[in-house]
Each structure stands twice: as structure tokens, then as C-alpha cells.
Design brief:
By secondary structure, the protein is α+β, with helices and mostly antiparallel strands. It contains 13 helices and 7 strands.
Length: 374
């Protein structure tokens, strides 16, 4: 008797289940699908290391891509100071530090790099501790001696960065709507932005002044807030106050003397061409007028101004009352000095002007007759 198609499918499924059950580990209670979906322990270990603040790292350019990297010796010292992180590796927690790093390299979680500039630049004593440009090292093996390792996976973004990405469009829209804000809100934004800008410019000026004075007098390079203008720096490094140790050669006394003379000449030139009080007052008035135009603008005033500029349309068949009133008003001129509203007819002004012209003609004729008599 032949079996139906449904019975054949049941037989195949049962045989496949028996084979899978025979190959399954009896000591494992986790289903096969859950085992496959389980994340790699080395991936978790690498993410934990990258998020840890004690592992010193920097940003550099690797093949036109910005990457975060660290030094081999810092990796070894970090794991020696934090051995509890090895517990993430579970069964592989007893591996040596070099073996763990080699496993990360084989899993493409790390890539070994080397500095692009391998020679000491003129004016410096040694190579840069943290190079800004890297290239891939041929041998992907862990080493402590002048070796750099870059993370290859994308770092998980924290919640505040996700919220900030949604906040930027809102901020852009708020900036575009600045003209319609209330007057008090405009003043607050204006003074806040002006204060922040003044703080930044003052900080840069004080920073440059301190550097120039110490460089000319002592011959040392001291930059307070050394990373304030850095393109690639964390928030903590950006506001670090104390400068780094000067690793460059001491400048020559001739260069220091030359730049000191240049600084004195620049100061004297600026003092000589400084604007006077009247020029400062004019410039202040001009700037204040521009600011007032921005602050006092409102949609209501703009619309009312546009309505006033529109001329009324008058029907030719109807009596033109507006024209008659305008003619009546044009016959009288109000004096600006008279607050009581006293009016003078235009005829009075015309007679006065005519009399003055006649007097001038008579004086001109008398002068001409006297010259002829002489």
C-alpha cells in the first residue's frame, strides 16, 4: 500500500528531528536557535573596553576615515589594573592579555596600525605620542612597543546623542523663527549670544597674550586650554586647562627679539590709528540702529506698513471726497514749531517770496546804475 504525501512529510520531519537530537549536546539546555542568536563574548568584551573611561584613546585618520585608537602598552596596563573585565569572556577569561588581543584581531574587532610619519619633524626632539594619521600595519599581531590599535566596529550611541539628533532640526526651526519672537525673548537671546561670543574672544586673546609673553621672556611654549581649538577632542580634553609639556627645541634669542619688536610696533600702530570719541559714537549709533531694526521688527508692524503704502482705489463715477479733503489740507501748512496747531495759507508764503524777489531786483538795478555813473 502506497503512503500519501502527508505521511511522507511526517516521516521526513521525524527522521530529521532524530538526527538533530542525536547530534545535540545532552548537557546543553539552550536551544540551538538561542545559541546562534547569543552575542559573541569577545564582542561584548570589546564594547565594554571601548566604553571604559580608563582606557586612554584618541581619534585619528585611517585611510580617509576617522577612527578611535589606543596604544598597545595602554591596553596591557589597563587589563592589569582591571582584571575583573575578563569575567565577560566566561570560559576564555584565563587567557593572557596578548592572546586576548590576538583573538580580537582575528575577529576583526581590532586592526593594528602604524604611524604615517616615521621621521622626526624639524624642531622636535621625538615622534608624536599620538599621531593624527595612521596606516594599516602589515602584520596583524599584538605588540606593546610603539603599536597602535583601532576599533573597527561602530560604537553604540548613547541616549543623549539620539535625543540631540532630534533636537537639531527643532533648533534650526527656532533660529529661523527669531524675527517673530517677543521683544523680551529677542533681548535675552541677543545678550546671551553676545556674552558667549565675548567670552570666547576674550579667552583666545588672553591665551595668545600669555603664550607670547612667556615665549618672548622665557623662551617656553605655554598654551593654556591647549585643546580649545582642536578639531578632534573629547569634551573633557577640550576644556583641559593645564598645558602639555613642551617637547620642542628652545627658540633662538634672535627670533624672540624680532617678534618682540614686531609686537611693540603693532601695538604702537594700533594706538596711533585708534578711532576718536566721535568716530566711536558714530559707529555705536550705526550698530545700535541696526540692532534696533532687528529687535523692533514684528509681523504686525510689517503688515500695517504694507497696508499704509497701498493707495486707495477710487471709483471715477462717485464723488471724490478724499481728493477734496487732500486739496483742502494742502492749502494749509502746519508749522513744526507751533504746538497749538496755528496754520498759514500758502498764498501768504507766495506773496512773501514774490516780495523778496522784487527787493533783490531793485538792489541789483541800483548797483548797476552806480557802476555806470562811476
Amino acid at each position: 500500500m502506497k503512503k500519501s504525501g502527508a505521511e511522507k512529510k511526517k516521516v521526513r520531519r521525524s527522521s530529521g528531528a532524530i538526527q538533530n537530537g542525536g547530534n545535540r549536546d545532552p548537557n546543553s539546555d539552550t536551544p540551538p536557535r538561542k545559541q546562534a542568536a547569543k552575542k559573541d563574548v569577545f564582542q561584548l568584551f570589546a564594547e565594554k573596553l571601548r566604553d571604559h573611561k580608563d582606557l586612554v584613546s584618541r581619534w585619528a585618520v585611517l585611510q580617509e576615515t576617522r577612527v578611535e585608537y589606543f596604544r598597545g602598552k595602554d591596553f596591557v596596563s589597563f587589563l592589569r589594573n582591571h582584571p575583573e573585565l575578563k569575567d565577560i569572556l566566561e570560559s576564555d577569561r584565563k587567557l593572557e592579555i596578548e592572546e586576548i588581543a590576538n583573538v580580537l584581531l582575528r575577529k576583526n574587532l581590532l586592526v593594528r596600525c602604524d604611524r604615517v610619519v616615521k621621521t622626526v619633524r624639524p624642531g622636535k626632539r621625538k615622534l608624536s605620542t599620538w599621531p593624527a594619521h595612521l596606516e594599516i600595519f602589515p602584520e596583524q599581531v599584538f605588540s606593546e612597543n610603539d603599536a597602535f590599535f583601532a576599533w573597527t566596529f561602530v560604537k553604540r550611541h548613547p541616549l543623549w546623542q539620539t535625543l540631540l539628533s532630534f533636537f537639531w532640526p527643532v533648533l534650526t526651526l527656532a533660529i529661523c523663527l527669531f524675527p517673530v519672537y517677543p521683544h523680551g525673548c529677542k533681548l535675552f537671546i541677543l545678550y546671551t549670544c553676545a556674552g558667549v561670543l565675548l567670552l570666547i574672544l576674550s579667552l583666545l586673546l588672553v591665551r595668545a597674550t600669555i603664550f607670547g609673553a612667556i615665549w618672548i621672556i622665557l623662551g617656553k611654549r605655554v598654551w593654556i586650554f591647549p585643546n580649545i581649538l582642536a578639531e578632534e577632542a573629547t569634551l573633557k580634553e577640550l576644556f583641559r586647562f593645564w598645558p602639555k609639556k613642551d617637547e620642542e627645541e628652545r627658540p633662538k634669542w634672535t627670533a624672540r627679539l624680532f617678534y618682540s619688536i614686531v609686537a611693540v610696533l603693532v601695538i604702537l600702530l594700533l594706538r596711533h590709528h585708534a578711532p576718536d570719541e566721535a568716530a566711536r559714537a558714530r559707529y555705536q549709533k550705526r550698530v545700535s540702529n541696526i540692532i534696533d531694526d532687528v529687535l523692533e521688527w514684528s509681523p504686525r508692524l510689517a503688515l500695517s506698513g504694507m497696508m499704509e503704502k497701498q493707495q486707495p482705489v477710487v471709483n471715477a463715477t462717485e464723488p471724490n471726497n478724499f481728493t477734496d479733503e487732500s486739496k483742502a489740507r494742502s492749502e494749509k501748512v502746519v508749522s513744526p514749531d507751533d504746538e497749538g496747531g496755528e496754520t498759514f495759507p500758502e498764498q501768504h508764503w507766495e506773496e512773501e517770496i514774490t516780495g523778496n524777489l522784487e527787493d533783490m531786483d531793485q538792489d541789483h538795478d541800483q548797483d548797476h546804475q552806480q557802476q555806470n555813473h562811476i
